[in-house]
Each structure stands twice: as structure tokens, then as C-alpha cells.
Specification:
The chain has about 600 residues and is of the alpha+beta class. It folds into four domains: about 90 residues, Zinc finger, CHC2-typedomain (DNA Primase, Chain A, Alpha-Beta Complex); about 130 residues, DNA primase DNAg catalytic core, N-terminal domain, CATH 3.90.980; about 110 residues, 3-Layer(aba) Sandwich (Dna Topoisomerase Vi A Subunit, Chain: A, domain 2), CATH 3.40.1360; about 160 residues, Orthogonal Bundle (DNAb Helicase, Chain A). The chain has a five-stranded antiparallel beta sheet with strand order 1-2-3-4-5. It is globular, with a radius of gyration of 26 Å.
């Protein structure tokens, strides 16, 4: 038996377009996709997939349903098998339990408390009396009921203990609410009280759709002196630097569009999504973190930044861009008119108006060059020297070797400084920042295996070739850039592109082709596949995390912004803790135990 909550987790995470698209050839039709129906013969397409609602429908034969129904009908699977099939595509490990003997989640009480709070806030929003002011505010911002319900918007009443008292009636105690960050307290109050009061609430969800925490925006009629936005505090299930608002809704759209739109706040996400931009996310009240960049890299390598165009906005934009570049992504910058943000642009100019601004977005280094030129930096020697100091941190942060090379060429051309001089300065700065990272994924290396034949990368690839259902799951956690060995990276990329691959593609380099053919022909039978997956993935991720730690060291060394330095140090400490918690034991004894499973 698969628990109901996990069935819903799989349903929420599933990309129905990708799953249906494996069986039939879909063509885009507006926001939806169409094809000739796989359930009856037809020449004119009448079969539609609606990704926003997660279902399909044929207007010819009447077949319809969700992603599970399609897999059951098309592949002949029962419901449990269909859930497992979809879960593998979504990168979710299914836990089957005996009826009445479910596994106990130590944080289940926190998820339950947040789920209750979400429902409570939503009920308050649509209550005829208590939610009137909140509804009026949303209507004034162009947010109708359909959009509000889609994003689970709510309203926290301007009362001290409304949520606390409601939760108590449902058996949720103060200690749980305090641990989840839903209650707070002060020295002046003997009892805890609701953290969110007189605010529109935004549910912060995990990739699988579980509520981790909340954001709250004070209403215009709210209390004086209150911060405009308030977020849930850190908790055992919520770490704001590791989550992106809206990613649970946007991840499939980001994959399809091959670009993520990153905005500054909750309302920007909701406004843009309601205007038809599905691939939108936002950081949660802090500067974009390396962990958030790594999340985005699971789905795309292109990111478009739509922050405010004031001084603070520019600062946040270029800070985020450097973090993205260090994470192996390629950011572009959209410049909005002074005083405008994505939300106001959509309300004034509509979706087409914002699309025009997005289409005018430029590469982050090009945007820096434009701003420096507008401010006259290239009109004097002193200004040019200053411009170089402002440009090189972005070049230095760039992880993609080819993009970094392009950047160096651009800076040399615009400043008139010889390329060799710039490279020497970059090199000297890197040396001052400490030793280079153990690897730079975008730099072409020798195809000779960098780890032993039975190392983690080979084990994971072997698992993927032996059981193709693992390909999508591994792809949810890793990208080719995460592999140390070039040949393994090329083999991984080929398997992601073609799950049914039986021979090396003709265009593949000979060394990589030889490695892939060896994997495909390997006669070993794998046992304990889950263990191979977890231990191999853990070792690879440990290496990736170490590289990010080294990258953060360089950012810390090269930043003159004290506030940003403090943020980076905190992020580094958290990342280091996560790496230690992987608890990997790759001693000879552990490897011997692993190898004995074959």
C-alpha cells in the first residue's frame, strides 16, 4: 500500500506533458498540448493535455483523466504500479507500508500544523466578514479568487490568538505551533500568540507540495510600525535559503521553457503566474543563495532576473547573478522602468508588455558594461580602472569555462586592457582567495577515469543502464556538470537524452563512446539498487557540495559588502553542516560490503 500523502506528492510533482510525450508526439497549442488520440484512430488531433490542471481529455472518444489514469490505460498497469512509474519520473522514492503500520515521520506534526494553518488562513480569507478587507486588497492588485485559490493565498486575522485557539480545538498544541513558527512570544506576554496577524498569507511549499512555512504581507490598514513582509522563522522543516517560493508550481514549466524567471517577492510570482508566466520563482526574503542556485540548475541553465531597477535592485541583481554564475547557470538581466516592478508592469501593460521587457533582457556582464558606460567610467583612465574592478568579480565567479572566456574577451575589448593582463589579474586574485576547487565541471578534462572503476560515478551509471527506470530519478538529483570524469558525464547526458539507448551515439567522442559501450555490455547483476543509488549519489553530492564551499570561500574573500559577507558565512556554515550530515563511510570495509552485493 502506498500512503495517500505520497500519492498526492507524486501527483503534484508529476510532469504530465513529459510522461504523455514519451508515448505520443505532443505539439503545443497555446498553454496546452495536442496530438492524435492514442486510444482511438483519428487523423485530426482531438487529444489535449492541460499541464496547468494535470489532466488529459480527448474530445473524440471521451477518454480523460490524470497522469495515473493515462499510465494505467496506456501501459496496462494497476494503480500502485502506475504511481511507482510516475514517481520514478518525478524522482520520488516510494515507500510502501503495511496497512496500519505506516512509517513514523518525526516531523509529521509540523507538516500537519502547517497544513491546518493553511486551511485556516484560506477560510478566513473567504469568510464573508473577517476577510472583506483582505479580499478587497487582492482585488485591487488584480488577483481574483481563482488565482488566490491556486496559490493557496489566505488571511491571518488581526487578532492575537485566532489561529492558536482554532488549532487547540483540533488537538494541535502550543509546542507544535511554536516549533513550526506559527506562534511567537515576548517578555511582556505570559502566553504565546499568533505570529501572523492582519496579513495576507503566502504558503511556502516544498517541491512535493508540502507546506513548510508562510510569508505574510501586512495590509494597508495594518498596524503601524509592522514590517511590510514577514516570513516564518527557520524550523526543522523550513530553511529559507534552501527553498524558492513558487518552485513547486513552476518546476515543470521551467523545464519546458528552458529558463527560470526570478523575481523579488511573493506578489510578483503570483501576478506573473496569473498573467500566464508559469516559470516564475522568488527567493524568500534573503539574497539568492548557492543552494537556491543549485535547485534551479536541476531544471535549467538559463535564469532571467527581474528585480527592481533602483540602486538596491541593481545591487541585488548583480549579487544574485554572481551566485548563479558560480552555480553553473547563465543569468540575464531585465531592466524595468524606474519605479516599476514586474507586478506593476503586468497590471499596466499586460502580459505582452512584460514579455517585451523580458525579450530585451541582456547578459549580466553586458548589463554591467552598459551601466558603467552610461556613468562615464570609460571616459578616463581612473574610471576604466574602476570599471575593471567592478567587472572582474563577475568574471571570477563564472563557473562555465566557455562563458568565462567570452567574458574576458568582452572586458578586454571594451576597456582596451590586454587579455593577458586581465587573465593575470584574475589568476592573482584566485591565488589570494585560496586554493582552487577540486574540479570545475565546465573545464574540459582528460577522458581518463578520475576515480576507480568501481567508484560512485560508474556505479550510478551502471545502475541506470541495468534498470532504465532509474534514469529519470538520477536526473532529478544530478546534471552532467556534477560528474568529475568527462566520459562518465557524456554517458550520463546520452542516457538522459535517450532512455532506450543501446549503443553509443555516432557523434560521441571515441573515449566517451568506449566507456558507454563498456557500461552497456557489463554483465554484472546489481542487487540492492536503492543502496547503490543512495550511497553513490551521496558521494557525488558530497563532492559537489565541497566545490560549492570552495566557491563560497572565493566569494567571501572578494566581497567588500559586510552584510553580504555575513550572509555568505552563514550559508557556508549551513552547507558545511549538510555535507557532514551525509555521513558517508567510504572506507575499504564499506566498499567491500557494497561490492559484495553484486
Amino acid at each position: 500500500m502506498i500512503p495517500d500523502d505520497q500519492v498526492e506528492e507524486v501527483r503534484a510533482a508529476a510532469d504530465i506533458v513529459a510522461i504523455v510525450g514519451e508515448v505520443i508526439s505532443l505539439k503545443r497549442s497555446g498553454k496546452d498540448y495536442k496530438a492524435c488520440c492514442p486510444f482511438h484512430d483519428e487523423k485530426t488531433p482531438s487529444f489535449y493535455v492541460v499541464p496547468a490542471k494535470g489532466f488529459y481529455n480527448c474530445f473524440g472518444c471521451g477518454e480523460s483523466g490524470d497522469v495515473f489514469a493515462f499510465v494505467m490505460k496506456r501501459l496496462g498497469l494497476d494503480f500502485v504500479e502506475a504511481v511507482k512509474h510516475v514517481a520514478q519520473h518525478a524522482g520520488i522514492e516510494i515507500r510502501e507500508v503495511n496497512r496500519g503500520k505506516g512509517e513514523e515521520n518525526p516531523f509529521l506534526h509540523l507538516y500537519d500544523a502547517n497544513a491546518f494553518a493553511q486551511t485556516f488562513f484560506q477560510d478566513c480569507l473567504w469568510d464573508q466578514a473577517s476577510g472583506e478587507v483582505a479580499r478587497a486588497y487582492l482585488e485591487g492588485r488584480g488577483i481574483d479568487r481563482a488565482v488566490a485559490e491556486r496559490f493557496a493565498l489566505g488571511y491571518a486575522p488581526d487578532e492575537w490568538r485566532a489561529l492558536r485557539e482554532a488549532a487547540a480545538h483540533h488537538g494541535i498544541g502550543d509546542q507544535t505551533l511554536l516549533e513550526a513558527g506559527l506562534l511567537t512570544g515576548s517578555e511582556r506576554s505570559e502566553e504565546p500568540y499568533d505570529r501572523f496577524r492582519g496579513r495576507i498569507t503566502f504558503s511556502i511549499e516544498s517541491l512535493s507540495g508540502k507546506v513548510l512555512g508562510f510569508g505574510g504581507r501586512v495590509l494597508d490598514s495594518g498596524r503601524e510600525g509592522s514590517p511590510k513582509y514577514m516570513n516564518s522563522p527557520e524550523s526543522p522543516i523550513y530553511h529559507k535559503g534552501q527553498v524558492l517560493y513558487g518552485l513547486s508550481w513552476a518546476k515543470n514549466a521551467i523545464r519546458r521553457e528552458e529558463v527560470a524567471l526570478v523575481v523579488e517577492g511573493y506578489m510578483d510570482v503570483v501576478a506573473l503566474a496569473s498573467a500566464g508566466f508559469e516559470n516564475v520563482v522568488a527567493p524568500l526574503g534573503t539574497a539568492l543563495t548557492p543552494e537556491q542556485a543549485a535547485l534551479l540548475r536541476r531544471y535549467t541553465k538559463k535564469v532571467c532576473l527581474l528585480f527592481d531597477s533602483d540602486t538596491a535592485g541593481f545591487k541585488a541583481t548583480f549579487r544574485a547573478a554572481d551566485t548563479l554564475l558560480a552555480g553553473g547557470l547563465h543569468p540575464s538581466v531585465v531592466t524595468l522602468p524606474p519605479g516599476e516592478d514586474p507586478d506593476t508592469i503586468v497590471r499596466k501593460e499586460g502580459s505582452e508588455g512584460l514579455r517585451t521587457h523580458i525579450d530585451r533582457g541582456v547578459d549580466v556582464l553586458d548589463r554591467k558594461l552598459q551601466i558603467l558606460d552610461e556613468r562615464g567610467h570609460f571616459a578616463s583612465i581612473e574610471g576604466t580602472r574602476s570599471a575593471i574592478d567592478r567587472l572582474l568579480p563577475t568574471v571570477r565567479a563564472t563557473r562555465d569555462a566557455a562563458l568565462r572566456d567570452i567574458y574576458v574577451a568582452k572586458v578586454a575589448e571594451r576597456t582596451g586592457v590586454r587579455r593577458e593582463t586581465l587573465e593575470e589579474e584574475l589568476k592573482s586574485e584566485t591565488q589570494r582567495a585560496g586554493p582552487p576547487p577540486p574540479r570545475r565541471p565546465s573545464v574540459r578534462r582528460t577522458a581518463t577515469p578520475a576515480i576507480p572503476p568501481m567508484g560512485a560515478e560508474r556505479e550510478l551509471l551502471l545502475l541506470m543502464t541495468k534498470d532504465r527506470d532509474w534514469i529519470e530519478k538520477v536526473g532529478e538529483h544530478l546534471s552532467p556538470d556534477d560528474f568529475v570524469d568527462l566520459s562518465y558525464a557524456a554517458a550520463f547526458e546520452s542516457l538522459l537524452a535517450d532512455h532506450e539507448l543501446t549503443h553509443a551515439p555516432p557523434e560521441m567522442a571515441s573515449a566517451a563512446a568506449s566507456v558507454l559501450e563498456g557500461l552497456l555490455a557489463d554483465p554484472k547483476e546489481l542487487r540492492q539498487a536503492h543502496r547503490v543509488f543512495e550511497e553513490s549519489l551521496g558521494r557525488i553530492l558530497s563532492t559537489v557540495m565541497q566545490e560549492r564551499l570552495d566557491g563560497m570561500d572565493r566569494l567571501i574573500e572578494n566581497t567588500s559588502d559586510e552584510e553580504r559577507c555575513v550572509e555568505l558565512l552563514a550559508e557556508k556554515a549551513q552547507l558545511g553542516k549538510e555535507r557532514r550530515e551525509l555521513s558517508l563511510d567510504w572506507s575499504a570495509a564499506a566498499r567491500k560490503t557494497l561490492m559484495s552485493d553484486y
